[in-house]
Amino acid sequence: MIVIHHNPNCGTSRNVLGLIQAAGYDPVVVDYLNEGWGRSQLLALLAAADLKPSEALRKTKSPAEALGLLKPDVSEDQILDCMLEHPVLVNRPIVCTSKGVKLCRPSEAVLSLLDNKPKGPFHKEDGELLIDAQGRLCV
Question: Is residue 139 part of a domain?
C-alpha cells in the first residue's frame, strides 16, 4: 500500500502523485489540508521520515513567518502545535510505502520508495523531462 499526504494545489505534490500512478499504483491520497492532522499521527509520520518539525516546516508560501516560526528561539513543540492548527505548514508531499516514509521534494525522490518504476517518457507539469522513453532518470 502507498499513502501520499497530498496537496492538490502543489505542483510537486501533483508530480509525485503522477509518478506513483504512472508506476501502476493506486495510492491512498490523504488531503491533509482538509483532513488536518492528529498529534500522534503527525509525530509518527515525522518520526518515520526521520524529520523534526522544523525540517518539515513549509517556510515559504505559508504563514510560518507571520506566526514567528522562523525565529531561532522557536521550539520543535511550538512548531508542531502550529502545524496541527495550520496543516499548510507541513511541507509536502509525504509518501509512505513498505520501503519507508519520505518528504518527496524534489518529485523524483519518490522513486526510491517504489518497487515498480514509471515507464517513460514522463514529464513534470512544467514540461521538464524526468524519465526518458528508455526509462532512464533525466535529472
Answer: no
**Quick check: is 96 catalytic?**
no
Model pTM greater than 0.90? yes
Task: Write the single-letter amino acid at 94.
Answer: I
What domain range is 11 assigned to? 3-131
Residue 25 CB coordination number (10 Å):
18
Of 94, 83, 100, nearest to 37 by C-alpha is 83
In angstroms, rounded to a whole number, what is the distance separating the alpha carbons of residues 52 and 57?
9
Each residue of 20-70: pLDDT tens digit? 999 999 999 999 999 999 999 999 999 999 999 999 999 988 999 999 999
Given 10, 82, 96, 104, which residue is catalytic?
10
